[in-house]
UniProtKB/TrEMBL annotation:
This is NAD(P)H dehydrogenase (quinone). Substrate binds at residue 98. It comes from the Bacteria. GO terms for cellular component: membrane. One of its GO terms (molecular function) is NAD binding.
């Protein structure tokens, strides 16, 4: 059974919701799945003042445990069109794993969210994917087998590079059923790919 880690950083909960959908899809494909998070780096009073979602559900990830997984799916909200500093700082600590080639050949994927439709989702996905390629990982995106990314009749996230959601400027929009279906589909494809490679 392939082991899959869904690793996320979320301030307001949108990425956490997408992470759980990603995990659902991977479990449906028969993988053993853990969902873990990167903690906030600001003090609690600032997090409260900025209306962060406190008490996020998943246990906190450690860099050392990345090696245990066959697939690692990384999600974080867009920060000025790129990966969040919290996730980047976590991945930067994987230099030792990189030096040993410990992540070479593992399966990877990316997902993100942004406030606006054109606020940098694709560049953020590539910011994550670039990092995973340096780790030697094989990337699985969100192919057009997720037909939900084809329509224009509603505001919808999702790109061939990875699942996404759009929060709106005030963060009030939650991931739609189409976007969650995209995350489930990508999670399923990543788990199936890892199972083919690692059994
Ligand atoms: C410092 C900062 C920079 C941001 N930069 C962007 C941006 O470039 N484009 C955008 O659309 N949204 C941007 N946002 C909004 C976040 O992407 C949004 O709050 C996040 O995707 C919500 O996910 P979460 O609920 O999981 O935290 C930014 C937010 C912060 C705090």
């Amino acid at each position: 059974m392939a082991k899959v880690l869904v690793l996320y950083y979320s301030s307001y909960g949108h990425i956490e919701t997408m992470a759980n959908a990603m995990a659902e899809g991977a479990r449906a494909a028969g993988a053993q799945v853990d969902v873990k998070r990167i903690p906030a780096t600001v003090p609690e009073e600032i997090a409260k003042g900025a209306h962060f979602k406190l008490g996020l559900g998943a246990p906190v990830a450690t860099v050392a445990e990345l090696e245990q997984y066959d697939a690692i799916i990384v999600g974080t909200g867009t920060r000025f069109g790129r990966i969040s500093s919290q996730m980047a700082a976590f991945l930067d600590q994987a230099g030792g794993l990189w030096a040993r080639g410990a992540l070479n050949g593992k399966v990877g994927g990316a997902f993100t969210s942004s406030a606006t439709q054109h606020g940098g989702q694709e560049t953020t996905l590539f910011s994550i994917i670039t990092n995973l390629l340096h780790f030697g990982m094989t990337i699985v995106g969100l192919p057009y087998s997720h037909q939900g990314q084809m329509g224009v009749s509603e505001v919808v996230g999702g790109a061939p590079y990875g699942s996404t959601t759009i929060t709106g400027g005030d963060g009030s929009r939650q991931p739609s059923e189409t976007e969650l279906a995209g995350a489930r589909h990508q999670g399923e494809l990543i788990a199936k790919t890892a199972t083919k490679l690692f059994g």
